[in-house]
Amino acid sequence: MSSGRVYDGFLPGRYPLDAYGNGGFRFADMSHRGSLLALPSGIKAWPVASMADLTDEALNPIFAEGDALELLLFGTGIDIAALPAAFRTRFREAGIGLDVMQTGAAARTYNILLAENRKVGAALIAVL
Fold this sequence. Notes:
By secondary structure, the chain is α+β, with helices and mostly antiparallel strands.
């Protein structure tokens, strides 16, 4: 295991998520404490600890993926929470499908769709 952080906040490439919980994630023989964006370009540390932290700026890396991303799985933590309408509109206008669910379900679904080589990403709020 690494020191517990994504190197420089970014790991290029696509990796399945091996585990989640205890405030972080394990993937690619590393561990990371905190929330993550798992995108076609790579895995990034994500400074969103709860839905209250969600901003347009926090979503910008998702939209920067362009055509490489067709579906985003949004893990809202331990409980399902609604994504505000303005954010849902932004996804619709960008042509990116959006599925909001608990973080655990989002991580499991991400792994399945990644194995099918789909253009999928996940925005995952860490759970304890």
